[in-house]
Amino acid sequence: MEQVNQIILSKAGSNVDLIPEIAKHLISSGGKRLRPMLTLACADMFGYRGDGHVTLAASVEFMHTATLLHDDVVDESDMRRGKLAARKVWGNQASVLVGDYLLGQAFKMMVDVGSLEALRILSEASAIIAEGEVLQLGAAKNITTTEADYLRVIEAKTAALFAAAAEVGPVIAGEGAEMKAAARSYGMELGLAFQLVDDALDYGGSSADLGKDIGDDFREGKITLPIVFAVARGSDEDRVFWRRCLESDGIEDGDLEHAIELLRKYDAISDTVQRAKDYGDGALKALDKLPQGAHADALAEAVAFCISRVS
Amino acid sequence: MEQVNQIILSKAGSNVDLIPEIAKHLISSGGKRLRPMLTLACADMFGYRGDGHVTLAASVEFMHTATLLHDDVVDESDMRRGKLAARKVWGNQASVLVGDYLLGQAFKMMVDVGSLEALRILSEASAIIAEGEVLQLGAAKNITTTEADYLRVIEAKTAALFAAAAEVGPVIAGEGAEMKAAARSYGMELGLAFQLVDDALDYGGSSADLGKDIGDDFREGKITLPIVFAVARGSDEDRVFWRRCLESDGIEDGDLEHAIELLRKYDAISDTVQRAKDYGDGALKALDKLPQGAHADALAEAVAFCISRVS
Does the keyword GTP-binding apply (chains A, B) (predicted)? Predict the structure, then answer.
């Protein structure tokens, strides 16, 4: 992981000062580096001897960072990981362009590794992530979104990169179709679990005491799984409330509290957490097919860590 | 070219409706398709037999289209090629994300072609373009920008893609270093000429009668070569004027007319056109080293077309 961090910092460099400044703001702000860890573990578990996995891991983190920069612009977010979002410090323009730069660097790094198959998997993920974001843009402010609709969004915008990050491990280790499919499946299920936990946390998760970082999705009119459950299970009166809050920017004081009350009443948060656990179990099942040992243990821990954030 | 258009339209497709809608808005709005033409001609001139050049040409146009979508967001432009800019129809959010999608598709298509060298050249260009845009962001609203500063910007933001589009032709045709360097040099010089002609046209070019599509750069505070010349050659009083207009958003009625008057007085537009012609000549010289015939003739015509827009 230390090597990954070094590559990340060196490849975020540029003669254009603003680029490393913004990139480092994000990169050093304590992301969990979960995605690059998947790439490293999924290559190392096959005894991969080389440094291609380190470069691929760094390029995965760059893809993720580029997505964050663009997401903040798209969502008009003010904060990211407890710090001011880059767009609030340097502006939307710089955030869009530095995101583009990091994406370009990510592809250059993948080319350096020289595996066309890894390139195919990661470039495919790149297109799918953007597709998922566009899909979410369409689903935003629409309370008729179904669970299937929503899963399609998060499979694309979040889980596809986890899946790709894991799959390129066996790819550069020269493994066959079965190991690649198992790694991909592990990543996909973990990614879904991860996103659902995030969604639950945005409404305070299982905790009764609400921290200060909650309600962002609600304020942005994002329809996440807790909302899908609560809308489907609620009364007509509830739906009037949800429509006012989420479809028409009409959020008033006390609405978030009422929303959380409704989410609790219909078990919408706890059922979302349950879904996350189910996907976590799915990830562990996929992991059973992969070589056992210290790396598999680390990947199992990643699942436990992900779920533990909410319970 | 017909094949390129077909690939472009099919690969701009997506199950997410908004994506083809926006992509087609731009793609069908009559861009000149100059960049993909370079790729085709620079492969065909070596007797390349395959269809990789068509796919690469389409991916070059996707990279360009993605850049346009993001540029309009960054420049807050209202119009693009005489139509409403995509961001004015579908919003900044969709423009950012559909740009990302097209970039991802571009890389997927390059991977399909399977040439790591072409991938390296185009991914390098992708990072450099973004770097050039960030550089321009820093140079905007700064009238002390020099000619060298400005050339660095346009070499990155415009000419790098022309150079890459041309270079990948001999690359997939299996040519050696000399032909690749000549094609790259042709593309680079043409790209510089192209951008300088654009810059001159934004102030009406050589024509005395000013059309309606002028002054965009001026209103956006963009420091282009005509401005660099006029600032360097002008009086202290002129610099006060340029500073007020370009550095502090203080444009008033009649300022554009006065700006054009100053640009003419100091031969700033005609000298920019002269520079463009010089780069055009450079492109023709590079072309002399490439195989002569119908394809070289078409590439020479591209230079003449580019210059003819302004004179």
Answer: no
